[in-house]
């Protein structure tokens, strides 16, 4: 993961901005935990304000993009957290578990160092059924099959709750399916660079898919075939907030 995000994380902070609706859900899941370890924190988009937070991030490029005032950060991997038993009231992991080299070991480390675990993950089957994957870049589905899915993560942790986090149509955090109702966004290279699923897929496959999407937008085909999406305020792309 370290080398991966040192390469694909350039400019990450520009496309991946905190969405207050998801932040509210994360804060609710953390409850009254006063000390929080944010593992795989990236640029710190969902670090809870007003609490004692320590971030863990393995990528120097991501650490470089953390804003002034962000929580202190330790450069380490989830699989080997440099902290004592139950030293934090809660551990937070937001859209990071699928990047870990050994996700089960990483989750075991979260349980070791914290009394509550809050993990935002996604159902890989639903991601693979996203129209951009299904119709334009089906190669992404192979990558998703190699990643841990939210149901697996919830089962491993023995989750006490799993909450669906739908993606609003005007979502501000540029996760891969963020633009499900705004397909023109995927024509922007900067948008695609902030989506790890696309950044890790063969560029030729992504280019072919984008060319097809551009043609379908120009002809009106995309809007005709996806008219049912255009009035939806939100959509379930498979994101799940897991609490254990």
Features:
alpha/beta; 244 residues; Rossmann fold; 7-stranded mixed β-sheet; 13 helices
Q: Average pLDDT across residues? A: 92
Helix content estimate = 25-40%
- The end-to-end distance, rounded to whole angstroms, is 25 Å
What's the story with the biggest beta sheet? 7 strands, mixed
Indicate the overall shape.
Answer: elongated
The largest beta-sheet arranges its strands as 3-2-1-4-5-9-6
Name of the level-1 CATH class: Alpha Beta
Which superfamily, in CATH terms, is the homologous superfamily? Answer: Vaccinia Virus protein VP39
Structural class: alpha/beta
Number-wise, the strands total: 9
Q: Which fold name corresponds to the CATH topology?
A: Rossmann fold
Radius of gyration: 18 Å
Poorly predicted segments: 1-14
Strand content: 15-25%
Q: Can you tell me the CATH architecture? A: 3-Layer(aba) Sandwich
Walk me through the structure.
- The chain is an alpha/beta fold and 244 residues long.
- It has a single domain, classed as Vaccinia Virus protein VP39 (Rossmann fold), CATH 3.40.50.150.
- Helix content is 38%, strand content 17%.
- It contains 13 helices and nine strands.
- The strands form two sheets. Strands 3-2-1-4-5-9-6 form a seven-stranded mixed beta sheet, sandwiched between helices. Strands 7-8 form a two-stranded antiparallel sheet.
- The longest helix is centred in the last third of the chain and has 17 residues.
- The two termini are 25 Å apart.
- The N terminus is likely disordered.
């Amino acid at each position: 993961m370290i080398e991966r995000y040192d390469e694909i994380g350039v400019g990450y902070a520009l496309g991946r901005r905190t969405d207050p609706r998801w932040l509210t859900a994360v804060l609710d899941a953390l409850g009254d935990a006063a000390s929080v370890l944010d593992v795989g924190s990236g640029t710190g988009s969902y670090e809870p304000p007003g609490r004692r937070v320590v971030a863990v991030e393995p990528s120097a490029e991501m650490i470089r993009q953390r804003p002034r005032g962000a929580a202190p950060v330790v450069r380490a991997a989830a699989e080997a957290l440099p902290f004592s038993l139950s030293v934090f009231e809660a551990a937070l992991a937001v859209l990071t578990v699928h990047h870990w080299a050994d996700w089960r070991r990483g989750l075991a480390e979260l349980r070791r160092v914290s009394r509550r675990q809050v993990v935002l993950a996604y159902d890989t089957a639903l991601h693979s059924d996203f129209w951009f994957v299904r119709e334009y870049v089906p190669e992404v589905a192979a990558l998703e099959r190699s990643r841990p899915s939210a149901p697996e993560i919830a089962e491993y942790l023995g989750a006490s709750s799993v909450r669906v986090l739908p993606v609003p149509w005007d979502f501000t955090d540029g996760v891969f399916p963020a633009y499900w109702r705004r397909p023109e966004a995927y024509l922007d290279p900067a948008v695609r660079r902030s989506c790890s699923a696309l950044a890790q897929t063969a560029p030729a496959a992504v280019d072919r898919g984008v060319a097809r999407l551009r043609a379908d937008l120009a002809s009106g085909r995309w809007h005709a075939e996806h008219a049912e999406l255009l009035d939806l305020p939100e959509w379930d792309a498979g994101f799940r907030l897991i609490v254990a």
